[in-house]
Amino acid sequence: MSKREIILATTLDLIADVGIQGTSLPDIIKKSGVAAGTIYYYFEGKEDLIDTLYLEIKQEASKAFTEGIEQDISFKEKFFLIWKNLCSFYINNPKKFELLEDYANSPLVKNEIKAVTRTYYQSAIDLFESGIKFGILRDLPVNLIINMFTGNISTFARMIFLEELNPSDQLLEKTIQASWDSIKIN
């Protein structure tokens, strides 16, 4: 692992343990064993380090999320596919899920970061926009539909992590169907 990768992995571990606000550069230096100068070689400071980590994880999540979206399947099947993709990414990467949730709900999110992450998810955004345009999905702002969609997935994943749900294929299918029913045209 490169020193840059060690810094990012250590930062992710610390954020999973104590949150973004509780993670400090001295803690990252101590836990990673990397010199302070090395951190500043790769990153301008803590904010740049967190932004970089967030963007890299967001890009990784978007690749998982949109996998298979170009298949010649129905709109509903694509919806179910990307729901399962993102849910699977979250469940298989709990630390990354925590960072994405913590960052998205913090005052750290800048408009330029939002603009970059939007490019990662453009194919999914296009899918939802086409669903609205062709009367498959409710006529709501696309960003609201996407937030409803991802919010359902986040809640499902969080309940699994907290052991409030015993996941099964049947429960997953019913949950995705309920998510679909909330945004589709009746």
Summarize the structure.
The chain is mainly alpha-helical.
Write the layout of secondary structure elements.
Elements: H1 3-22, H2 25-32, H3 36-42, H4 46-65, H5 75-92, H6 94-104, H7 111-120, H8 122-133, H9 142-161, H10 169-183
Rg value: 18 Å
**What is the CA-CA span between the terminal residues?**
51 Å
Question: What is the CATH class designation of the largest domain?
Answer: Mainly Alpha
Q: Tell me, what's the shape?
A: elongated
CATH architecture of the largest domain: Orthogonal Bundle
| Contiguous runs where pLDDT drops below 50 for at least 5 residues | none
- The percentage helix is over 70%
Specify the biggest β-sheet. none
CATH superfamily of the largest domain: Tetracycline Repressor, domain 2
| CATH fold topology of the largest domain | Tetracycline Repressor, domain 2
Q: Tell me the number of helical segments per DSSP (H or I, 4 or more residues long).
A: 10
**Classification by helices and strands:** mainly alpha
Give the strand content. under 5%
Number of domain modules: 2
Query: What's the number of extended β-strand segments?
Result: 0
Please write the string of helix (H) and strand (E) elements.
HHHHHHHHHH
The chain-level mean pLDDT equals 93
